[in-house]
Amino acid sequence: MSRKDTPKNMDHNYLKWDELATAGGKGLPDHYARLVQLRRERDALRSEHIAIDAVTPEQKSVVYHRWTDAGDEVVVAANFSPDTQHLTVGMPSSRSWRELFSDDILEADGSIELNIEPWAAKVFLNCP
Asked: CA-based, 20 to 30 A from 88: which of 28, 78, 99, 118?
């Protein structure tokens, strides 16, 4: 299934259940289960604290972060374009961060430089 199969509009866009058996669709249930579990585990993703840090219409990307008063933080950088985007992401605190999908650990002191694949996102979780 290519990304061009679904027209971009505001109408209902129903899941094509038969495509879950394709190579591109087999991982979707596990992917969404992992995201649901993340929301349950990370208090920041359920808090009312949210800041939109960057919106770049020319790159079709957005960066935001959520946090709790107890110190839990999550940063999301999303690319809504068909092209890889290079973004500078300001991290809300100097500390170690783990990227959810790759499990890469990085030390951030200020901002980081990222390449984000088409139609993808990077989710950074603060390390204890």
From this structure: 28
